[in-house]
Amino acid sequence: MIRVVGIVGSPRIGGNTELLLTEALKAAAEDGAETELLRLANSEVKPCDACLSCRKTGECRIKDDFKLIFDKMVQADGIILGSPVYFGSATPQAKALIDRAGYLSIAKGRVFENKVGGPMVVARRAGQNFTLAQLLFFFLHQGMIVPGSTYWNIAFGRVKGEVVKDEEGIQTARNFGKKIVWLIRKLKVTD
């Protein structure tokens, strides 16, 4: 079974980022993947304080909801992380997650290495390319394999629900979800 987790880095439940990720996960499910949507808005993930204690213990010492999310990321074959653009970059929630997940992954022997995944971004008007790159660097740093889609994984919308009017953005998200499943299947055959 192929497992794909989508993590919504927005502080708003049911917003445009969640709608976009839901489309990607629906497409992945249509191609046979077991999918799960996680909302950082429902969770407390405090920022990393760079104490580096994880390098000694193999665990993060900060007590919050991070461990549950991290464990689901580790168990998944594919990971999609979405964020709206907030003042030209990813949300603090998304940034806190990738900082802590990155440090802990390294401490545990690079647990995301060779997983498949990538970022998705929703913008009102601008900042999407920087935010996409910001999140993409996490996937690349962790040694993950990032498939393409039919365009960059971005869509436009401001008020809740507006992103569904961006037909190209929605189709790009769906294509990305399908491409993740396709690539995971290819990689599993060679294992």
Strand order of the largest sheet: 2-1-3-4-5
Report the helical percentage. 40-55%
Average of the residue pLDDT scores: 97
**β-strand number:** 5
User: Which structural category fits the helices and strands?
Assistant: alpha/beta
- Computed over alpha carbons, the radius of gyration is 16 Å
| Terminus-to-terminus distance | 14 Å
Uncertain segments are none
Strand content: 15-25%
Number of helices: 6
Largest sheet: 5 strands, parallel
> Which sequence of SSEs, written as H and E, runs from N to C?
EHEHHEHEHEH
Q: How many distinct domains? A: 1
Q: What's the short version?
A:
The protein is of the alpha/beta class. It contains six helices and five strands, in the order βαβααβαβαβα. The two termini are 14 Å apart.
Folded structure, characterized:
- By secondary structure, the chain is α/β, with parallel strands linked by helices.
- The protein has one domain (3-190): Flavodoxin domain (Rossmann fold), CATH 3.40.50.
- The protein contains six helices and five strands.
- It has helices spanning 16-30, 54-57, 66-75, 92-107, 128-141, 167-190; strands spanning 3-8, 34-39, 78-84, 116-123, 154-156.
- It has a five-stranded parallel sheet with strand order 2-1-3-4-5, with helices on both faces.
- Helix 4 (92-107) links the parallel strand 3 (78-84) and strand 4.
- Helix 1 (16-30) packs across helix 6.
- The longest helix is centred in the C-terminal third of the chain and has 24 residues, at 167-190.
- It is globular.
- The chain starts with a strand and ends with a helix.
- The model has no long low-confidence stretch (mean pLDDT 97).
